[in-house]
């Protein structure tokens, strides 16, 4: 899901290439940002209180800027690892198109401004949750976990699970059971989603010395663990419907999508290959997992706004 800039030389005959807007944009990981912004927006729109459109836009902007700042600081700290992996070697820092101090200042500036903007535009609970998200991703995942434990993506995945909670808090000023379930959904979704990708680039992580689950435990064990996370994820995904927190539009969508996710995960578990060229089930699961989250949160918003759920006597 990482978006990279077009390859450009790090230096020329007249000296080093100066970073331009494309490099700053690449530091924010815009590919991942789309999902972060969408889930944050969905959490906001599904909340029972609606913000003024200007304030809602400002809150989403703050979430986007906070993600961009955290992503930048992640690349600032991991420039040495990125240089060792083919998937990331053309990022601005390892490619030599930007110096580390510039990236550090940009990341800190974006992060601080995003928290201040959120607090002034909405409320300080949402701002505090955004600050925790940034600190968790940078300090807990990037600095502490990434190079030390194969549980890095499991625990660190919490950072990507906060956006719908932030969006909900921005609209309502509190955090209830529904945003907690949305947090748990993304938290449990992250391991099977990310491990499906990491099975492809396992050699990259091994060469860089990153203890990903696929490197430490191997493909077979990782595939089994993907199923162990998918099962509770499915339960959490469907839970808002029987709990009366969402209506039938969301409930039916969640059930059908989750059935598809389960079938694809089982296909991954049954795949014995350790060669990327033969990892068709893994590729399908990775692509479907992205669609799964977008469709699920889209259904949540539709369910909250379309009168059919209310007409059937179900609270949206």
UniProtKB/TrEMBL annotation:
What are the record's GO terms for cellular component?
A: plasma membrane
Topologically, how does it sit relative to the membrane?
Multi-pass membrane protein
- Give the pathway listed in the UniProt entry for this protein: Porphyrin-containing compound metabolism; heme O biosynthesis; heme O from protoheme: step 1/1
Ordered alphabetically, the record's keywords are: Cell membrane, Heme biosynthesis, Membrane, Transferase, Transmembrane, Transmembrane helix
Q: Which domain of life is it from?
A: Bacteria
TM stretches of this protein: 31-49, 55-77, 103-121, 127-145, 152-171, 177-205, 226-243, 249-269, 285-306
One molecular function GO term is:
protoheme IX farnesyltransferase activity
Q: Which reaction does it catalyse?
A: heme b + (2E,6E)-farnesyl diphosphate + H2O = Fe(II)-heme o + diphosphate
**Coiled-coil segments:** none
Q: What is its EC number?
A: 2.5.1.141
PANTHER family membership: 4-HYDROXYBENZOATE SOLANESYLTRANSFERASE, PROTOHEME IX FARNESYLTRANSFERASE, MITOCHONDRIAL
Can you say what this protein is called? Answer: Protoheme IX farnesyltransferase
Q: Tell me the organism.
A: Parasphingopyxis lamellibrachiae
């Amino acid at each position: 899901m990482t978006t990279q800039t077009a390859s450009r030389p790090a230096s020329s005959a007249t000296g080093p290439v100066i970073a331009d807007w494309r490099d700053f944009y690449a530091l924010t990981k815009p590919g991942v940002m789309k999902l972060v912004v969408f889930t944050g927006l969905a959490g906001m729109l599904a909340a029972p209180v609606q913000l003024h459109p200007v304030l809602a836009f400002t809150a989403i902007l703050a979430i986007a800027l906070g993600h961009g700042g955290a992503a930048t600081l992640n690349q600032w700290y991991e420039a040495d690892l990125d240089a060792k992996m083919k998937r990331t070697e053309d990022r601005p820092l390892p490619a030599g198109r930007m110096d580390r101090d510039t990236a550090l200042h940009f990341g800190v500036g974006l992060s601080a401004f995003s928290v201040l903007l959120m607090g002034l535009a909405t409320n300080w609970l949402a701002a505090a949750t955004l600050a925790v998200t940034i600190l968790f991703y940078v300090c807990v995942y990037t600095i502490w976990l990434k190079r030390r434990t194969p549980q890095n993506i499991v625990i660190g995945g919490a950072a990507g699970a906060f956006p719908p909670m932030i969006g909900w808090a921005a609209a309502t000023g509190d955090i209830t059971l529904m945003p907690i379930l949305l947090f748990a959904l993304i938290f449990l979704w992250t391991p099977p989603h990310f491990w499906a990708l990491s099975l492809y680039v396992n050699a990259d992580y091994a060469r860089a010395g990153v203890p990903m689950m696929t490197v430490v435990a191997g493909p077979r064990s990782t595939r089994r663990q993907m199923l162990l996370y998918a099962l509770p994820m499915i339960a959490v995904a469907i839970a808002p419907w029987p709990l009366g927190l969402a209506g039938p539009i969301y409930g039916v969508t969640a059930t059908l999508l989750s059935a598809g996710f389960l079938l694809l995960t089982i296909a991954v578990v049954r795949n014995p290959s350790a060669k990327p060229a033969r990892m068709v089930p893994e590729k399908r699961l990775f692509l479907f997992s992205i669609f799964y989250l977008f469709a699920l949160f889209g259904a949540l918003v539709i369910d909250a706004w379309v009168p059919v759920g209310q007409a059937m006597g179900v609270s949206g």
